[in-house]
Amino acid sequence: MAVVPSRATRGSFWRETYIVFRRQLRMALRNPAWVIIGLVQPILYLVLFGPLLEPLAGQLGAQNAYTLFVPGLLVQLGLFGALFAGFGLIAEWRAGVIEAERVTPASRTALLLGRILRDVLQLFVQGIVLIGLAFLFGLTGSVIGMVFGLILTVLLGAACAAASNALALTTKSEDVMAPVLNSIALPVLLLSGILLPMTIGPQWLQVVSDFMPTKYIVNAIRELFTGDFFTITTMWGVIWTIVLFAAGLYVGTRTFRKENA
Amino acid sequence: MIHARGLARTFEGRVRGRQKEQVKAVAGVDIDVAEGEIVGFLGPNGAGKTTTLRMLTTLLKPTAGTATVAGFDVATQSQEVRRSIGYVSQSGSTSPEARAGEEIMDHGMLYGISQKQAETRGRELFDQLDLEGLWNREPRAMSGGQRRRLDIAMGLVHDPTLVFLDEPTTGLDPQARANLWTHISDLRTKRGATIFLTTHYLDEADALCDRILVIDHGVIVASDTPDALKRQISGDLVELVVTDAAQARAAAELLDRIADTEVDTDTTSVSARVRGAGHEIPGLIRALDSAGIALESIEVRRPTLDDVFLTLTGRSLREDA
Q1: What region holds the ABC transmembrane type-2 domain (chain A) (predicted)?
Q2: 20 to 30 A from A92, CA-CA: which of A58, B130, B231, B244?
């Protein structure tokens, strides 16, 4: 038996990931209700909340309200779409699908990655629709920066999807998972400066929000949107994204590998 | 095909707060299954059946002991084991909203076979398992029997030489069960597969298994053919119900003359095991009649695997542990 992974087994890893991804995507497209709901939510924010911000943009320190607002919505998409991805996994586990897949010789990491890729693709499409629509509302800024911002969003989403899948496979219960996720989601939403930048808040609130990694990511994406690539803020955002991405994948694969020889 | 020695699994349980407790789910079992055999695994809930099955199918690491399955070690050669075995779990294997044909193709491809091969194999299995015309059906729109056969097809898509079935007919109606038995015994006659299954039912073991392993409290307490196990129970259970305790005593005396075991008396009912009860009952009824005992009811039960289990372990198979 080969100890070092050969080219063939590396090839089969990507093939297995693709098989899992394709299956997930097929099922998502066949029942697109969740995809549509996920898409409609940021659009509602953009249409119904964006105009309220427009007159305030100057006071908030931005030239364009949408370079402030759209990055926040992107991160919101990345966080919340992906954090709830695990619910689908519980249903699959209950139907015996996970067990059936784990008894095949397929890589456990591939079983996770295929699922995350579906969430990532969905997030990517939602992000593009959101940015495209924002242009109609008057978004201006650096297009290259927006591409980088979208990449950060996607990596953050992958981390959240992996963590959510790990939580799902550990708890195996929607009743446990829903309160856990909701109790995480709300403070993260409020303390990341997603809707309004934290800089307008009082000192104590700013200090509390300093402990929220996602705040740095939101701020970094805001700078990227305005074309500021090489700033301290951007650097922190990139670092936190990579840290969260690595941590999410690590926890996710560890959970998927657990309890088998 | 299967050789396990001292296979054990201990779980870390928690009893009230911080106190930790080691729970022995499987306390060291030896299992030998030869090629071409159909072996049944019998035990109540919580006896360690599924835990053993999960260790043999590489889903769970043993905490002690060794096992080779299809010639490979479950601990060090799990990939090779997975390639050689099929596992049909009790909880199913397909998403209710997916399509049957796509599920079986994807499953086959995860075993490394090409999409085309997986489709050919899948369609073959659908034909063999009476699932013709259900290729595009969603599992949620299938009957219980069809879904079970789909699970079996999923477990066979890569042509395994050894198949594990966990409670294959639980929850099916009698026709669907009988139909599934035919398919399971076909696995051996037509494909030469070795089969290891768990079951609760005597008729199922009779219809399918060459040999039965009985497990209780994580230990194998018997291993024999269904007939030999039933022979351990001497005779059919005869139960008489009369109107009062005095009559019960008189009935017990008469029953004792033909009984092979001690007569149990419970106020107005008496019971004992009687070999060949069918021949003895007419004489017993005449004797009761001439003794002036008014019989309320009489019941004769053939020995069941539950009785075997009761004899071996002192408790019923159906008591949920």
Answers
A1: 33-259
A2: B130
CB contact under 8 A, B89 and A99: yes
* Beta strands B211-216; B219-224: pairing state: antiparallel
Whether A2 is covered by a domain: the verdict is no
Range with the largest mean pLDDT of A30-44, A247-261, B115-129, B167-181:
B115-129
Which residues does B211 contact at the CB level (< 8 Å), separation at least 6?
Answer: B37, B38, B39, B40, B223, B224, B225
Domain span at residue A223 reads 9-256
Yes or no, beta carbons of B83 and A105 under 8 Å apart: yes
Q: How many Cβ pairs within 8 Å bridge chains A and B?
A: 89
pTM score of the predicted model: 0.82
Q: What pLDDT score was predicted for residue A261? A: 32
Beta-strand ranges (E) seen in chain B are 2-14, 20-33, 38-42, 64-69, 72-73, 85-88, 162-166, 194-199, 211-216, 219-224, 236-242, 264-266, 269-274, 295-301
Q: Which residue from B60, B93, B111 is facing A105, i.e. has the nearest CB?
A: B111
CA-angle at A60, arms to A59 and A65, nearest 5°: 105
Nearest CA in chain B to A21: B106
- DSSP letter assigned to residue B249: H
Write down the residue that tokens 């320190």 correspond to. Answer: A61
Distance, CA of A227 to chain centre: 22
Is the pLDDT at A7 greater than 60? The verdict is no
Residue B169: band (very low, low, confident or very high) from pLDDT cuts 50, 70, 90: confident
Q: Selecting from 2.30.30.210, 3.40.640.10, 3.30.70.980, 2.60.120.320, what CATH number does the domain B234-302 have?
A: 3.30.70.980
B60, B89, B93: residue with CB nearest A259: B60
The rounded distance, in Å, linking the Cα atoms of B31 and B223 is 9
Question: What is the number of domains present in chain A?
Answer: 1
Nearest residue on chain B to A91, alpha-carbon basis = B95
Contact check, Cβ <8 Å, B97/A27: yes
Mean of per-residue pLDDT scores for chain A: 87
Best probe of the B interface among A103, A112, A257, by most B CBs < 10 A, is: A103
Give A31-52 pLDDT, tens digit per residue. 778 778 777 877 888 888 888 8
Alpha-carbon torsion angle B313, B62, B22, A89, nearest 10: -100
Residue A69's pLDDT is what? 87
Residue A230 located in a structural domain: yes
The residues near B91 (Cβ < 8 Å, ≥ 6 apart) are: A94, A95, A96, A99
CB spacing of B94 vs A104 below 8 angstroms: no
